[in-house]
## 1
Amino acid sequence: MMTIECKGISKYYGKGENRFQALKDVNLKLFAGQLTLLVGPSGSGKTTLLSILHTILTPDEGDLFILGHHVSEMNEKEKAQFRSENMGVIFQALYLIPSLSVLENTILPLIIKKEHEEGAKKKGIEILKKLNLGKKIYSAPKELSRGQQQRVAIARALITDPKIIMCDEPTSALDEKAGLEFMTILRDHALQSNQTVVVVTHDHRIFPFGDRIININDGLVKENNE
């Protein structure tokens, strides 16, 4: 099932003589149950495209459709609600709150959505156990290894059962073992839950995990098999 469609997406930055085109007429379709890697050199437009797909950045030209909704016609409040209901995100900087436990960090999206705390905790413990963090639920983030912290970020992104997961350079600070473990968990969950996963990366080690690899260079998008 197609979940995301870009039709002629373009994005510009700057004004006058400093104006440049970051994305150039992007046409792209993404599907459920697939892990798609967005790759390319720094400044190529990867993060700009991810930000547009995540609906936190508005394209200057073209149309974006996600889960059958015409996102380009939504206002900012509607986009925020849409993200909350349908998307999980894993950042390069994990943004775990130091004063909260592993469990509290994990269930934070549910608490923000005003779900019942006991139900949220039960769901959080269940997902943390699946990620081999059952013995760490009451630990502080600083007591975990970087790989374990990244698994908490996965749990937090998955806790709302999102249809789409966006990741920005998730393995850049991990050693090879932790990076491959992270990608295995992410890909397995995507396949099992029929989710769409989009990963921006420079990390060639994780390329084998991509069902599709989309190259972006100078704002132009090209799939590896094209």
## 2
Amino acid sequence: MVAASFLFFLLAFTVIGIASVKGKEADTPEDYLVANRNVKPGLAALSAVATNNSGFMFVGLIGFAYGYGVQAVWLHAGWVAGDILVWIRAHRVVRERSGDLEVSSVPALLATDDQGRLDRVLATVAGLLTFFFLAGYAAAQLNAGSTALHTLFDWDLRVGAILGAIIVVLYSFSGGIRASIWTDVAQAIVMLIAMVVLLGSAMAKIPLTEIGQALRAEDPMLVQWVPDDLTFGLSLYVLGFVFGGLGILGQPHILVRSMSVNDPKNMGRARNAYFLWYIPFSVAAVLVGLYARLLVPDLESMAAVELVEPAELALPELASRLLPDVLVGLSLAGLFSATMSTADSQILSCSAAVTQDIAPRWKNSYLASKIATVTVTGLALTVALTANEGVFSLVLIAWSALGATLGPLMILRLAGRPIRTGVAILMMGSGLATVIIWDALGHSGAMFKLLPGMAVPFLIYGLSPLITRDRGHPKKKHPDAAEAAKGEPDAEAAAAE
């Protein structure tokens, strides 16, 4: 019965995605990648929130709450706060700017100035970063789905990843981002229902008013609000998670949802729909993680497979112990939905990066976009089958890398600030290096890596006038530096006189 229920929902999502072809307006890259910018705000919002709250929320955040108890509240609150700031300040500008400039990918949006001039070098570098990290991010989603199937059905971990990849290709290949959005909406509904059902069943076992006492009895650390050994203090610990939420500005698979909305004026409605779903779901995810620690305390002994982090088994194992078979299938479908709703979006964003930014000669080829989708899916599946990191770790690596490399530049671009190619590349390189070094130094537990990862690129940008200020002013020892004088109307006017 569990398998039948699960497969029913899986088939329904696939059919919905394929049926989206009926809404297709034309066989063009713009329709395939941004749905001709005519998606209703509510649909775009539910798609964005389902894409954002992926295996990270359904598996990773629950696992974090399972392992660290009430400290998960800091991660949740900070992340939501950062997300709110982005919705208030940025998403409408993303829609307006992308529509005015007629760009269909986030790297192209990043590399195009206010006059519509595309910086090809910057677009290519941003496209390569998008391709590399989103492919790894998508692999983490396929991993999350395979973890659930392994737990409940004892299937080989490879089966879930392969099944997810096949389904994503079927509907993404058919309808592009429109298929992704349609299935995301259906998946968002199933995800929320599954989480509410699971939380309600857990609360029937242990009333919410007694959970604090029960956690203390299990392990006093689980009700310790402030982590030990916070090197930089509680404020920077929480602020680090706020920057985690701000990192959405570097996530092409989420920003492209805003680019597809039918009218910039509707972004307020999209924001309301987004948080109406997001806040209850994320609160429920933290609570489910806490309940899982009480009701399934023996996960360490279950993680016999090297690719599985013990805490990532919390949700599927809790569902199998608390729910009847039909609802276990629903919960599993919800978890699998979470992974697919993100994986398909990331794969399509990778496809856009390939055809629009890395190899722009295929920019106007509808077929090339589809071929890129299949190719990227194959790459993500390969990574999923060979990676040795847990889902939460893989997601945080990719999220932080994209947030630190693309996020600061996106903020500057949306603010209308000038960006030199060399400075932009230096910013991206320094952001990525900072994230890697911060993680290697072991400081991520005291302050989330995206705070320094975004701060350093902004510091580079702030210092860039000191680095480049002499380039536009020829000196006596360079009398023939004609290139340096280009673009300086005052100097040219003086020479003319």
